[in-house]
Specification:
The complex is a heterodimer of chains A (415) and B (78). Chain A has 415 residues and is α/β, with parallel strands linked by helices. Chain A has helices at 21-29, 59-63, 65-68, 73-89, 114-126, 135-140, 144-153, 168-181, 199-207, 247-252, 278-292, 312-324, 337-340, 347-361; strands at residues 6-14, 36-39, 48-51, 104-108, 159-162, 187-194, 238-246, 259-268, 299-303, 332-334, 381-382, 394-400, 405-412. In chain A, strand 9, helix 12 (312-324) and strand 10 (332-334) form a beta-alpha-beta unit. In chain A, helix 4 (73-89) packs parallel to helix 7 (144-153), helix 8 packs across helix 14 and helix 11 (278-292) crosses helix 12. The longest helix of chain A is centred in the first third of the chain and has 17 residues, at 73-89. Chain A starts with 5 loop residues before the first strand and ends with a strand. Chain B has a single domain (3-77), classed as Non-ribosomal Peptide Synthetase Peptidyl Carrier Protein, Chain A (Orthogonal Bundle). In chain B, 55% of the residues lie in helices and 0% in strands. With 78 residues, chain B is mainly α. The radius of gyration of chain B is 11 Å and the shape is globular. Chain B has helices at residues 3-15, 35-49, 63-77. Chain B is built from three helices and no strands. The chains are: A alpha/beta (415), B mainly alpha (78). Chains A and B meet through loops of A and helix 1 and helix 2 of B.
């Protein structure tokens, strides 16, 4: 089968920093943490934890009140990110053109419409209401984001959601990439969104004892991947989308190409639901390199999964050491979750955008707050402050999920 | 509050439809009120006036028919 080249022609974000990818990347280069202390008014016990909110996001303003009102927050974040990516790619919002009958959407979410259902439970059990709004079901659909994106842009091809915990949107992007590369779809919108502030979801994460500790003062510095004093991950909400496009299609219409997507590797640890294994991650890394037609010597940056959990970080570094061998010590690695938090099902897409922008801008964002490296995480070139003016040819973005599901995306800079 | 005013306020807040367009003769289709939004409007009346709507109600096609249906249910069950 002839392989088509795949261009990244659209980037869209709903992030705690706002929706402009260039500004988002500049904030990361500046080491600016978006993590704040969240305290809700829930009784008897409020949520009180470091968290990342998209406080400036107005669904009504971005989507219009009629559309926003039919969506759960995860889908609002997702559709808004897709709108931004679509606009960035230079496509009109909706056109009744036959071409778009083969264009599609591959989305990722870990939690889907959890907030909508939680509202339903609260209404029924807490407030004693007897009925729920008919929209409750529609809002709670886990495929609401991809369906609405297809409707809004008039895309008649595949439209699906992958739910693979923290690798959801990385896998969605990988699957979208394969469809463009095979020629099945000339254009795919892909990304992910999640809103993990549902009370029961946040409390469930808390029970797992993997959330970073922090208070009003220390929250911004609470997520410290690879650091000897790391205490866990920070949940966050957000949406991120990429437009993947057949290279010749993009060139023919004069599109701006942010970068080239080269490969995708996925694997399963097949050993434990929440204890990651380097061997499985190695398989995903090697599969991505092979799929991209690259060797380990071609990679100039890794955007790590790097959640700052006690178990996860050393395993990821061990996997990188195994794949990159002697070169690992000179391999720049950073975990930007230290600043933008962990958007769960959206994380892979957020970090794919970081990786594409690193290649486009030839600059490396740091792992923030990494003053005291855990010796168990040594052996790679940890980027602790921004590096500009780099020569970056290709880069990988890692997403290693609960369930042992691993996904690695490979991108190349456009000359 | 009369049913027409409730419907106007609902459509203004949910779909940003100007109240002056919500006239008795206006077709719900023309106002972009689909079956889902119609269910939401009926839910608003159920909720506000503790009504119970039968499952097999004939769907109104115009604002006027919707107003008449809600007025009848309110008088029967109110």
């Amino acid at each position: 089968m002839t392989r088509r080249r795949v261009a990244v022609t659209g980037l869209g974000l709903v992030s705690p920093y706002g929706g402009d990818p260039a500004d988002f990347f500049a904030r990361l280069l500046a080491g600016e943490s978006a993590i704040r202390f969240l305290r809700t008014d829930d009784v008897p016990r409020p949520l009180a934890m470091p968290f990342v909110s998209c406080a400036g996001f107005s669904a009504d303003a971005m989507l219009g009140r009629a559309l926003a009102g039919t969506l759960d927050r995860f889908a609002q974040l997702g559709v808004a990110a897709a709108f931004a990516a679509w606009d960035d790619a230079g496509f009109p919002r909706k056109e009744a053109v036959p071409d778009r009958e083969s264009w599609g959407v591959a989305w990722g979410t870990a939690l889907g419409g959890t907030l909508a259902y939680e509202k339903g439970y609260r209404d029924l059990w807490q407030r004693g209401r007897e009925r729920l709004s008919p929209l409750s079901l529609i809002q709670g659909l886990n495929n609401a984001a991809n369906a609405h994106i297809s409707i809004q842009f008039g895309l008649g091809g595949v439209s699906m959601t992958h739910t693979v915990a923290c690798a959801s949107s990385a896998i969605a992007i990988g699957e979208a990439f394969r469809r463009v590369r095979s020629g099945e779809a000339p254009v795919m919108v892909s990304g992910g969104s999640d809103a993990p502030q549902a009370y029961a979801v946040a409390r469930a994460w808390e029970a797992l004892r993997v959330l970073a500790s922090g208070d009003e003062n220390t929250a911004p510095q609470s997520c410290r991947p690879f650091s000897v004093d790391r205490s866990g991950l920070v949940l966050g909400e957000g949406g991120a989308a990429l437009v993947l496009e057949d290279w010749e299609h993009a060139v023919a219409r004069g599109a701006r190409i942010h970068g080239e997507m080269l490969g995708y590797g996925t694997s399963c640890d097949h050993s434990h639901l929440v204890r990651p294994e380097a061997a499985g991650q190695v398989r995903a890394l090697e599969a991505a390199l092979a799929d991209a037609g690259l060797t380990s010597g071609d990679i100039d940056y890794i955007n790590a999964h790097g959640t700052a959990t006690a178990e996860g970080d050393p395993v990821e570094v061990a996997a990188l050491r195994a794949v990159f061998g002697e070169r690992a010590a000179r391999l720049p690695v950073s975990a930007t979750k230290s600043m933008h938090g962990h958007q769960l099902g959206a994380a892979g897409a957020v970090e794919a955008i970081v990786t594409v922008l690193a290649l486009r801008e030839q600059a490396l964002p740091p792992t923030a707050h990494l003053a005291d490296l855990d010796p168990a995480c040594a052996g790679v070139d940890h980027v602790v402050t921004a590096r500009r003016g780099q020569t970056l040819r290709a880069a990988l973005s890692n997403s290693f999920a609960f369930g042992g599901s691993n996904a690695v995306l490979a991108f190349r800079a456009v000359a | 509050m009369d049913s027409l005013t409730i419907i106007r306020e609902f459509l203004d807040s949910r779909l940003e439809i100007a109240p002056e367009r919500v006239l008795p003769e206006a077709k719900l289709d023309d106002l972009d009120v689909d079956s889902l939004m119609l269910a939401e409007i009926m839910f608003e009346f159920e909720d506000r006036f503790n009504l119970t709507l039968r499952r097999n109600l004939k769907s109104p096609r115009t604002v006027g028919e919707l107003v008449a249906l809600m007025d009848r249910l309110r008088s029967e069950q109110g």
